[in-house]
């Protein structure tokens, strides 16, 4: 009888525990003033346009040298022979690769609106200086510092998005972000064609005006972004406490801790190279970026080698860039379908 009574007490206590577990699981912040769909649309409108414009200007300032070649840069700087032009293109990637990790560490310690807008303003200033260089040495120096200040744009934007979106939500946003680089090629050539018509104004060649005006535009946007670029869900003023708690809980459920709450150290940064799942991503990312950069930096040179008319040359990348942007925006829906995530899906 005693054993039977103890068994009944054990069964009762177990069933009570089983009843409490679901309530613990359902202890997830509920939205009462809005819906999740409306909240994420609100986040998109406050985050994506800023980051897309930021990286679009970085990419435009990086590759506009290919359009400058069409307006006489090589002849004016006396780099038509040898490998001087290719060396000027390559020197950009030396600081760009070396300082990516330190840049994200600084972005974490400072606020994104401070670090990203500072870098944006500085590479805009370097772009203006690039329009004033007189020789190959000056071009090399400006390309080096351009790479130094642009190094934080790509990883910084991705890090900031990870502070707002779960892995499943981020895929569409990453594709939309990537599309901004192709749009830079789409209207960058048309913009270069228009600016090139300023050839001779105040004694400056068209390629100089191309660097100067696009650099000044970048500086203006950087000043605006300093006051408007959002930081983290915990610090923005356009979300209430309920919405902040919901975003934070989603991120913690997805990865264990929100990205804003995680520290970035050299040990954490180097650990990615030990992760076998990261190796194929790094490999294919390397292949993709090589193709993208080669196409963007050398397209003007190759077109010039084919002796196309100057009126047509800068606008040729436009159709292919627009098509690429559309494909990038559409194809992300397939891997983001439930159960079809190519990487780890949210729990």
UniProtKB/TrEMBL annotation:
Cell compartments where the protein resides: Membrane
Which terms are listed as keywords in the entry?
Membrane, Transmembrane, Transmembrane helix, Transport
Q: Does the keyword Transmembrane apply?
A: yes
Q: Which domain of life is it from?
A: Eukaryota
Where would I find the Major facilitator superfamily (MFS) profile domain in this sequence? 47-347
Kindly give the membrane topology term recorded for this protein.
Multi-pass membrane protein
Q: Primary place of residence?
A: membrane
Stored InterPro entries: MFS, MFS_dom, MFS_trans_sf
**What GO MF annotations does this protein's record show?**
transmembrane transporter activity
Its cellular-component GO annotations read: plasma membrane
Q: What residue ranges are annotated as transmembrane?
A: 47-65, 85-107, 114-132, 144-162, 174-195, 207-229
Kindly give the PANTHER family that the UniProt entry links to this protein: MAJOR FACILITATOR SUPERFAMILY (MFS) PROFILE DOMAIN-CONTAINING PROTEIN-RELATED, PERMEASE-RELATED
Put simply, this protein is called: MFS transporter, putative
């Amino acid at each position: 009888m005693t054993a039977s009574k103890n068994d009944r007490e054990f069964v009762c206590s177990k069933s009570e525990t089983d009843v409490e577990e679901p309530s613990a699981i359902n202890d997830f912040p509920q939205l009462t003033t809005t819906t999740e769909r409306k909240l994420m649309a609100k986040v998109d409108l406050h985050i994506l346009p800023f980051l897309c414009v930021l990286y679009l200007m970085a990419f435009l300032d990086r590759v506009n040298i290919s359009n400058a070649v069409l307006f006489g840069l090589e002849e004016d700087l006396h780099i038509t022979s040898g490998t001087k032009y290719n060396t000027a293109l390559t020197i950009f990637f030396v600081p760009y690769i070396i300082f990516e990790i330190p840049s994200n560490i600084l972005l974490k310690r400072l606020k994104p609106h401070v670090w990203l807008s500072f870098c944006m303003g500085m590479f805009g200033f370097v772009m203006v200086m690039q329009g004033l260089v007189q020789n190959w040495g000056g071009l090399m120096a400006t390309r080096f510092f351009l790479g130094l200040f642009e190094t934080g744009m790509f990883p910084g934007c991705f890090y900031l998005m990870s502070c707002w979106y779960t892995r499943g939500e981020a895929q569409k946003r990453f594709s939309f972000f990537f599309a901004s680089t192709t749009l830079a090629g789409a209207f960058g050539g048309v913009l270069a064609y228009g600016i090139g018509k300023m050839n001779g104004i105040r004694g400056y060649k068209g390629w100089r005006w191309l660097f100067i005006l696009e650099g000044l535009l970048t500086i203006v946007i950087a000043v605006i972004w300093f006051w408007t670029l959002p930081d983290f869900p915990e610090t923005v003023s356009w979300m209430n406490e309920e919405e902040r708690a919901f975003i934070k809980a989603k991120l913690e459920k997805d990865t264990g801790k929100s990205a804003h709450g995680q520290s970035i150290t050299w040990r954490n940064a180097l650990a990615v190279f030990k992760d076998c799942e990261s190796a194929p991503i790094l490999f294919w990312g390397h292949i993709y970026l090589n193709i993208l950069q080669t196409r963007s930096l050398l397209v003007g040179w190759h077109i010039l080698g084919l002796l196309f008319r100057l009126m047509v040359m800068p606008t040729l990348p436009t159709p292919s860039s627009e098509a690429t942007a559309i494909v990038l925006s559409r194809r992300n829906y397939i891997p983001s379908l439930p159960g079809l995530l190519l990487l780890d899906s949210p729990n």
